[in-house]
Amino acid sequence: MATMRNETTKLKNGKRKTKLPTLTLTQVRTRVDAILADGDPESAHTADDVLREIVLRAISDGNIGHLNGRRMARECLRTKDIKRYYA
Question: pTM higher than 0.85, yes or no?
Fold first, then answer.
């Protein structure tokens, strides 16, 4: 499964802030389909965590509209039954 590159910005206080990419509804659906089709539960779990963070952060930052935010959240919930492995 392909991973997304996150941009990192160095802040004035020396800390780094990760800027997550903003996705369209179609991109979210494509990533959810890929997660559901992934044969490796560990990589599917990791990809699901990343996708949920991207979507939640976009919603909380106001980067996407109310209706698209609801639709994206609904798409992410399709992965609720994947096997999750924790190290």
Answer: no
